[in-house]
Structures are given as C-alpha cells and as structure tokens.
Amino acid sequence: xxxxxxxxxxxxxxxxxxxxxxxxxxxxxxxxxxxxxxxxxxxxxxxxxxxxxxxxxxxxxxxxxxxxxxxxxxxxxxxxxxxxxxxxxxxxxxxxxxxxxxxxxxxxxxxxxxxxxxxxxxxxxxxxxxxxxxxxxxxxxxxxxxxxxxxxxxxxxxxxxxxxxxxxxxxxxxxxxx
Length: 178
Description:
The protein has 178 residues and is an alpha+beta fold. The chain is 31% helix and 40% strand. Strands 6, 7, 8, 10 and 11 form a five-stranded antiparallel beta sheet that branches. Strands 1-2-3 form a three-stranded antiparallel beta sheet, with no helix packed on it. It has a three-stranded antiparallel beta sheet with strand order 4-5-9. The longest helix is centred in the N-terminal third of the chain and has 28 residues, at 38-65. The model is unreliable at 1-12 (pLDDT under 50).
C-alpha cells in the first residue's frame, strides 16, 4: 500500500513526506518541462530499454559460449633427477572442454624442439583439469644450441599447439642463461 502523506511545491523547496529538499529554480523548471513534454520521457525510457536489451543479448551469448571455452595454462621450471638437470614444460587444461594437443615443446628461434614420441603417438587428449609434462635435459638443449649456431640473445619459449591450430607460448629464459 502506497501512502502519500503530504506534498507541497515552492520555488526553492520541495517538501515531501515532511523532508525539505532544496532545489534551485533550474531543477524545478526542468521537472516542469519534463512533465509537459511526455514524448521526451518516453524517448529516454525507450533508449534505456534498448540499451538494457542489447546488454542482455551480449550476456546471453557469452553465457551460451561458456561450456565450449578452451583454455590452456603453460607452466615451466627446472627439474633435477638421477639422469641430470633440465627444463620441464607442463600444460594444464583449465577450460570447460577437452583439448587435443598436437605439439608441445621448446621454441628456440624458428625451430621447435619436441619429444620424438609425440610425433609417433600423434595428437593426445587433454581432459578437463588434467595436465601433461615434457622434460628436456639441459645438456641436450645446449648441444642443440651449439649445433644450430643459435645466438645467446635468443629466447627459450615453451610452446603448445592444439589440433585446431591455436598456439600458446610462454617465455622460459634467454639462451645464455641456460
């Protein structure tokens, strides 16, 4: 139930529910103009409704695409094992669907160094929340760098490519820091 107790207009004040609101003449004139020009208020409401409708369409499209979102995270680091020390590249699927990985390796200059078993076994599935790691020995990487005359200023970059052709990279270090 809506109850209006008391409403009074003066040139400087609006008394509404016993509260005095101070407005200047320009605000009172604007309110009176809006009351006289109903088409203006309708135009403003229509524009606001159109804006909210377009915003709702974009939100619904974004929400509809969420189950098909593909996102991979690359993490790198060093490892120590009984065989020696080296660098590992780990790819984690944090998206909302399964991804097929085509290549995973280290990019130095223009060449990708990958595990030879990846080419033999072909693309492999990476389910939601799962991860896969590849390990590269430091001395093997150093010998590849020397054999291919790669400059010390080049970067070692972790590299992943899926079967849809999307590539993701992450810098590991510069060659001279290896």
